[in-house]
Amino acid sequence: MKVKVVTNILEANDRLAAENQKIFDELGVFVINLMSGPGAGKTSVLESTIKEVNGKIKIGVIEGDIAGDDDARRIESLNIPVVQINTGGACHLDANMIRVVMNELPLKDIDLLFIENVGNLVCPAEFNVGEDIKVMLLSIAEGHDKPLKYPLMFQTSSALILNKIDLLPYTNADIQKIKKDALSLNPGLKIFEVSCKTGEGVSEWVKWLYSIVNNKP
Fold first, then answer.
1. What is each CA distance from 44 to 39, 47, 199, in whole angstroms?
2. pLDDT digits (tens, 9 = 90+) for 110-164
3. In this predicted structure, what is the pLDDT of residue 5?
C-alpha cells in the first residue's frame, strides 16, 4: 500500500507538470529546473549568469527555499522578476507549487525561467515541475563521491555545473573522477567548470544557454 501511494503521488505530480509545461510552451518560455545540495552556489551561479547575459535573454526566476527570502532579494536587486516559494519544510518543489505562483511572473515577457529548487541532492530529481530540462550544480567542496552516491540527479540532468573550481587547490576533490562517474551515469551530460568568484567558465555556460533557448520550437 505504501508503494502504491507514493506511485500515485508521483503520477499526479507528473500530470500537473505536463500541464505546466504546456503553458510555458504556449508562451515561448524555456524552463530550467536548477538543482543542487545546500550551499553549492545556485544563487551565485544565477547572479553570474544574469550579469553575463546582460539583457540578451529575458530571465525570470522562481526561488525555492524551506524558509526565508534572502536568495530572492539577491535576484531582485539585479532587476529580474522573481517569486519566492517557501515550502515550510518540504525538501523539494513540486508541480503544484509552481502552478500556484506562475501568474505572479510576467511570463509573456520572459524567455528563460530558472526554477531554483530547494537544496537537496535527492528529492528534487524525482519531481518534475514543468521544466524543459534539469540542470544540477555540484560544488568542488562537496567532494568527488557524489555522482555514485546520488545517481538520480546526475542521470536526469541535461547539464552539470561544477562550481567553485577556484577551491580546487584547497581540497582533495578529484574533478576527473567526478566527470568520469557523472558521464558513466549519463553519457550525454554537458559539463561546465565554473567559478563565480573569478568568472571562469561562466561565458561557456551562457553560450550553451543561448543555444538551447534560441532553438526551442
1. 10, 5, 11
2. 999 999 999 999 999 999 999 999 999 999 999 999 999 999 999 999 999 999 9
3. 57
pLDDT, tens digit (0-9, with 9 covering 90-100), for 32-70: 999 999 999 999 999 999 999 999 999 999 999 999 999
Q: How many CA atoms lie within 13 A of 51 on its CB side?
A: 12
Full set of structural domains in the chain with CATH:
2-214 (3.40.50.300)
Place of cell 574533478: 175
Do the beta carbons of residue 184 and residue 152 sit within 8 Å? no
Return the bridge partners of 160, or none. 136, 191
In angstroms, the CA 112 to CA 62 distance is: 11
Q: CA 195 to CA 178: how far, in whole Å?
A: 16
Note the helical H segments in 54-149.
70-76, 95-101, 146-149
Q: Mapping DSSP to helix (H, G, I), strand (E, B) and coil, where does residue 163 land? A: strand
At residue 162's C-alpha, the angle toward residues 25 and 127, to 5°, is: 40
Distance CA 129, CA 17 (A): 5
49 contacts 196 by C-beta, under 8 angstroms: no
Contact 46, 34 (CB under 8 A): yes
3-class secondary structure per residue, 4-21: HHHHHHHHHHHHHHHHHH
